[in-house]
Design goal:
4 helices, 109 residues
Amino acid sequence: MLVDDVDRLIRARRHQLIYDTQLRSSVGSIAANIRESYGRRVGAERNQFLRFARGSAEETDEHLSANHRTGRISAPEYWRFHNRLIVVVRMLNSMMKESPGPSVPPLVP
């Protein structure tokens, strides 16, 4: 949902947002790294990709913040995204703290 909402924001503000290419890349990287983490072994290997996703969430927030500070997106828009990203970061932190369980089977046998 976050990827779709950021994409709509970028399309609606074509040529107005700064860092739009990096913003699109970083928000897409969040979901991609979460998904990739579940193709990895439980533990340090999986956590590495969850950390990548967390870094991408932080990067996404920084790009949105820069656009807010320069008046390109409104305060309500920025804070809506920011609060959703906080939830994502907390979720990722929680996923990294979980005790290792059975590994998740791949999607394709």
